């Protein structure tokens, strides 16, 4: 009982001391046509699933930073096959994050805001869907007062809070008569503690065993099946990728600084201490 209480207190302390850093990307320093952007030291890739998405900077004062018009944003600029449902992702492989909110201009290809359509927001982690929700009403239908942009608030999207779910990718997909989308003022949380969330590190039966742990560098990783594993630092950054085969794998992390790391696979997470 005492051990359980102590673990709960320690988990609470970690959560408090590693409170997330909220950042808003307004794209104003990004280059026109770029398919990536950097915010708070993290590189995000813009992945086009259908149509072509990148940073748009050709039309000043057509963006929205949350309080006023601005000049740059992500959009598909009417490119690609207009019969396809426009879809793109914001994704990073160097950090995990939590998405908070963003603003979108959704319309027909001719920028008509009055047509009816849907926007599906999907959060993914390592390719696995963590949440998906479709918004079908409540979109802005006039330029004033937000320059045509609609707030997508993940703390209350269709009555659900998705802002505390750890992801590495947010995918947006249009439906109905919507063919154009612009995204601006992307607010997200960089949290040094999200990799070590209590719900992420399992302490029950594991498919992977690691020894010795702590280690000065050499590690033996035993698993019942082949998998890909990623090693993350406590700041959430990916520091090493490990191809793991069935059986015993001899790994060396001597090049990593002393500290605590998280080994993540598609099914579980394990803590590694490097001394």
TrEMBL record:
InterPro entries in the record: Secre_tail
Domain Secretion system C-terminal sorting: from-to ranges: 210-273
UniProt keyword S-adenosyl-L-methionine, yes or no: no
Signal sequence bounds: 1-20
Domain of life, per lineage: Bacteria
Pfam families: Por_Secre_tail
Alphabetically ordered keywords of this record: Signal
Record-given protein name: T9SS C-terminal target domain-containing protein
